[in-house]
Amino acid sequence: MLFRSLLRWTALPLLAAFSLHAGAQTNTLRVGFQKSASLLTLQKSSGSLEKRLAPLGVAVKWVEFPAGPQLLEGLNVGAVDVGFVGEAPPIFAQAAGASFVYIGFDPAAPEAEAIVVPKDSAIRSLADLKGRKIALNKGSNVHYLLVKALEKHGLKYSDIQPVFLPPADARAAFERGAVDAWVIWDPFLAAVEKQSGARVLLDGRGVVNNYAYYLAERGYAQHNPKVIQALFDDSQAQAAYLKANTRAAAAVIAPLQGLEPEVVEKSLTRYPFGVKPLTAAVAAEQQKIADAFHALGLIPKPIRVADALPGGASVAEAAR
């Protein structure tokens, strides 16, 4: 598998860290996921991960969360073993003292998140957002998009009125005019574009990377390297299927997400998919987000992303 070769050459410290305590195995992998995470939703529906882990004697339990911040809470309290989230939730979670490690990432997907306004809105530019109410899920990937988009267009975070709402409540507020704009990710983005005619004011291109991360409880990662490898092998296989059969995959995923197949298909085209081992460069980008959030007072203390890397000093030093 591609992941295995990547792991061999670019993540030796990561494997070594996992293998230190590889003797203790578990018989269940508890996966934290969001329905908006289309690849994991496909894996869950197909049972592909269960089939891959069966030879290891490991079952799979899927635990659904409404968004990344809640998933990180579940990981921190021991409700799940691994999870998949956007780039901002781990920053907030680490600042709150959560114990986890980054174990992999998906490639950048800047088009998969955007600031949208109602189709008939008078707002035509980022500058028009000054003083406006903007809905977003606090601590999610779009939080960073909003910060950087404002900065790029000469506005400060304090120039707008953030309204913190989870996706379902945010859409309701957006459609009844209680907020002026909404910062959201796919497939919710594709849905509001098609169903409400929402207009994209700006997406992440040229502003943010919008990476997504696989995270694990530190002890689980250390003790179960074969399970982690199987998860990534299956993610790679299903990602390849999805890319080659996007319409068919969308037809499977759509009813599970409560969306039309064409909406899901559009959202799938904006994600590259394909888990990779965390690199020093990606870790450094994550550190930039942490530093930006601390400078704005969004997290109470500075954090070192390197402290949440499983590879120890070699990866941490490279990230700095």
From TrEMBL:
Residues 28-245 form the Solute-binding protein family 3/N-terminal domain. InterPro entries: ABC_SsuA_sub-bd, Solute-binding_3/MltF_N, SsuA/THI5. Transmembrane segments: none annotated. Keywords: Signal, Transport. Pfam families: NMT1. GO terms for cellular component: membrane; periplasmic space. One of its GO terms (molecular function) is ATPase-coupled transmembrane transporter activity. Gene3D superfamilies: Periplasmic binding protein-like II. CDD domains: PBP2_SsuA (cd13557). It is found in: Periplasm. Residues 1-24 form the signal peptide. Part of a binding-protein-dependent transport system for aliphatic sulfonates. Putative binding protein. Belongs to the bacterial solute-binding protein SsuA/TauA family. This is Putative aliphatic sulfonates-binding protein.
